[in-house]
User: What shape does this take?
Amino acid sequence: MLVALSVIWGSAFMLVKVALEDVPPLTLVAGRVTTAFLFLGAVLVIRGRTLPRSRDAWFAFTFLGIVNNVFPFTLLTWGQQHIDSALAAILVATMPLSTVVLAHVWINERLTLDRALGVVVGFAGVFLLIGGDLQDITGSGTLGQLAIIGGAVGYSAGTVFARRYMVDADPDVTAAGQTLVASVIMIPIALAVDTPFDLSVSVKAGLAWVALGVLASAVAYLIFFRLVRHISATQASMVSYLIPITAVLLGVLVLDESFEASRIVGLAVIIFGVWVVNGGGGWLMARLGRGDAALSVETIGEHDTNVR
Assistant: This one.
């Protein structure tokens, strides 16, 4: 499921870039979440399920609709107007770094010394990518990159919340509920700002737009909410390991984007930091002969099995 999700979300960066040729960001997001809800609503009807009426359920749907859809979709879509899809995907790879911090605060997934080191290393990779651009903080490229990082933080909050409160919830109902809330928020905003009825959308952009709603939103969240029932929030965020691979390949092969050496270095540092966050630090300490300071790989495996 993790690999499938990474490929689907990795392709979303290319699809956003194609749809943006004819569709402004707010309208693109509104259409994306509405298409996703219509698809998920049909899934609920076919499976004979309905959305709950409880206040707690709708609080959860509202929170997820905002932090998992409205906030990151809008920031990522706006940001991709100013940077290419490959760089956007690399910056989203920082998601596990903010996830581990939020999980420590919110759901007691402990932030150990090695995980904290991984966060520092990962964000050093981000600085390698965007540090030079920070001299002009108001530049469109810099703002675009910062918007992508902000969107990744939104995904982190959604992941931690889902792991904390939605483990026992029906994944189909959760996905449908959050996209319904996102649609209710985004449709009036798009109508007021973009006047979308005046748009002329090509077949290529239209197909990319539909694919964003059905594949990269509806199907992806059906997988995602099943995934977080079985693994930790930090582990679920490991999808960011693989997203850049798909996104970079599609960006280079389909969109004819360039891929600079500095991005390879930045991506490598980010992924190393993410690896440390997800247990690599303990492995390194064990291999360096510091067995007293860290669990061995075998002990960690036994501990995880006992916990499950």
About this structure: Residues 181 and 236 are 23 Å apart (CA to CA). DSSP finds 13 helices and no strands in the chain.
